[in-house]
Amino acid sequence: MDSTLKTLKASLEPIRHTAQQALSQVEQPQQDYSTRWKCKACEYIKHFTKAVTWEAAGRCPRCKRKEFTPIL
Fold it and tell me: For residue 70, what is the enclosing H or E element?
């Protein structure tokens, strides 16, 4: 009985390891890319020709704050 449990445990541990790695990758926050970003403060909408990150959106030209949310 003990050898059966050890064999079962040995075969299940790699599966658990793979599942935990997959879950950790899924749980990592995905960086938002968007062609339109809306300022939270003044609601100005900043447009781009291609999808950019939050850092690339920069500051709001109207109120000079860096408080954008993506418009998808």
Answer: strand 68-71
